[in-house]
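Reminder to self: keep the SMILES exactly as supplied, no canonicalising. Ligand is magnesium ion.
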Amino acid sequence: MSESTMVRVRGLSKIYERGGEQLKVLSGLDLDLAEGTFEALMGPSGSGKSTLLNIIAGLDRPSSGTVEVKGEDISRLSESALATWRSRTLGFIFQSYNLMPVLTALENVELPLLLTKLGGAERKKRAEIALRIVGLEQRMDHYPRQLSGGQEQRVAIARAIVNDPAIIVADEPTGDLDRQSADDILTLLEKLAKDMNKTILMVTHDPVAADRATKVHRLDKGALSS
Amino acid sequence: MTFLGLSAKNALRNRFRTVLTVLGVAIAVLAFVMLRTVVWAYNVGVEAAAPDRIVTRHKVTFVMQLPKRYIDTIRQEPGVTVATWANWFGGKDPKHDREFFSTLAVDPETYFQVYTDVAVAPADLAAFKENRRGAIVGDVIAKKFGWKVGDKVSLKSPIFPGDWEFAISGIYTATRKSVDRSTFLFHWNYLNEGMAARQRDQIGWVVAKVSNPARTADMSLAIDRKFDERDTQTLSQSEGAFNASFLGMFTAVLKAIDVVSIVIIGIMMLILGNTIAMGARERTQEYGALRAIGFLPRHLAVFVLGESFTIGVLGGTVGLLLSYPIVQLGMGRFLEENMGSFFPYFRISPGNALLAMLLAVGMSLVAAGIPAWNVTRLRVVDALRRVA
Ligand SMILES: Nc1ncnc2c1ncn2[C@@H]1O[C@H](COP(=O)(O)OP(=O)(O)OP(=O)(O)O)[C@@H](O)[C@H]1O
Ligand SMILES: [Mg+2]
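C-alpha cells returned for the bound complex:
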C-alpha cells in the first residue's frame, strides 16, 4: 500500500437477505482512495452506491472483504469503538443536510465537539473557524429554517470539518440544490481536498458534479469501473 | 450548549404538542393532589387526635344516650385527671338553614379543661360560665356568619323543639389540626332544663383526659367493665379510634379515591409516553445523523429521557402552581367552612406536594423508557434511509 492511500477496500461483498431471498449488492469489489483527492462515485439507482459509502464510513458492515483506513481494518472494531472512530476520522455530508432545527448554525457546527473533551470556549472558537471556511461567518446565529438550502448544506460541511477529519463522505450532497448552490458546494469540496488535504468520496447522480472530482468511479451490477 | 440543553430544546420543539402534554401532566398532578389531599385531610382527624383522651359512648351507637351519673363513675377511675360530657344538639340557624355546623351542649366548667386544644380568651370564658345562655363558637363559623361577641343567635333543632336563644360570649381558635373550628358550644344546663322532666339528665358521651396516654387502651376496657352490669353498657375508645369509627364508613370511598389517584398517574404516563414516542419517531433520521457523527446509543437515550424529564418537570411545576390556589385556597377553604366536622384541616401537605412532583418526574422517565430503549437499538443505516 502506497504512503498516500487513505482508504483501501479489498474483495468487498454485501449481501442483503430479504424474506429468505438473497440480494447481492456488492460483489467482491476493490477500491483505493488516495489522500487529498476528491473522488466521485456514480451509478444507477439501487446499484449500491450508498451501501458502499456507508461501509467505508463504518456505518454498515460488509458481508465479506476488508476496509482499511489509514492501515486499520475497521471491520474489527466494535460498535462503540466505530462510533468513536467516526467522530475522529470522518465528516458526513447528507443530501438532506440533517441539521438540528432547534440549534443555530454555530451550535450545529459545535455538535460533534460535544463528544470531545474541549471546553465551551474552545468549541465555540473552532465552530466559528469552520463557519468562516464555508463563508457563513455572518450567519452564525441563524437557525436552519432561516437559511437557504445551499447555506444549510454549507453549515453541514462546516459541521463535517470541525473536528478536522481525514475523510469526508458525502451522499448526493447537491441532490436537493439548484445549479448555482450546487456549484458553490462543489467548489468548497474541491478546496477542502486541495487546500486542507481532505480525502473526499462523493456519491452523485449528476454528471456535472462528477466532472469536478479528480476521479470518477462507476458502480454497476456490484462491480466498479473507472 | 450541553446534552441536557439540547434535549430541553427538543422538548420545546413542537410547541403546541408540548404545551398540550405539559397541561395534561399538570392536570393529572392537580387531580392527584386534590384526591390525595381529600384522603389526607380525612385522616388528619384520626392522626392528629389527642393521645390522652378517652371517649365513652353508648355501646350500641353514639346516637343513644347515657345516664348523667356515669360521669361520676368515670371520674373515680384511677388515672382519669378530668372528665367532661357533651350532647349532640343538631342545631341550625334558620337564617342559614342550608349550612351545616356542629352544635354541642357542654359543661362550661370542665369542657375546656379536657379540650385544652380549644383556645378561648380567659375573659370570654369567664363571661360564658356566667351566662346560662352564653355560647362559644369557632372562629371559622363566626367569620362565615359574621358573628361577634355579644350577638344574639336563635337556633332550631329537629331533636329538641322550640326556639333556643343564645348570646355569643366568645370565639375559640384551635391549637390542634383535628379540632373543628366551626362548632357551636353552649350550656348543657340550658338544654337539660328545657326538656320534659323524664328526659332530663341524659348525656351524649363522656370525654376523659388521662394522665398516661400509653394506657388509654387498658383504661378504656376498665371503664367499660364498670358499666357491664348496669342497664346501659358503654364503649370507650381513644379519641383517635373514636374519630376513626366515626369516619369509618368512608374508608371504602377513601380506598377508591386512592386507587383513582394512581390511575390518573398511569394515564398521565401514557399520554407523556405517546408524545415522547411520536417525537422520537419523527426524529429518526436526525438521530441517525447524530449516530453517524459519532454519538453513542446512550447519548440518544439521554436526549429522549431528557426531553421527557423536561416535560415532567414543567408539568409537575405547573400542576403544583395550579393546585395551591384551587385545592388549598378554593376547595380547602370551602370544605373547612362547610364540612368542618369531616375536614377540620384541608390543606396540601408538603408530603403530598412532594409525592406529586416526584411522580410527575419519575413517571416521565418511565414513560420515556420504551422510546429511549428503541432509539438505542436504531440501526444507523436504516435511520438515515428513512426519509423525513
Ligand atoms: N437494509 C436493507 N435490506 C435489504 N435490502 C437493502 C437494504 N438496504 C439497501 N438495500 C438494497 O440494496 C440495493 C442498493 O441500495 P443503495 O441504497 O446502496 O443504492 P444506491 O445506489 O444508493 O441508490 P440511490 O441512487 O437510489 O440512492 C437496493 O436494491 C436496495 O433496495
Ligand atoms: Mg443512495
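Points to follow up:
The first strand of chain B starts at residue 53 and ends at 58.
The pocket of adenosine-5'-triphosphate (ligand 1) is lined by residues A 16, 18, 23, 25, 43, 45-51 (CB under 6 Å).
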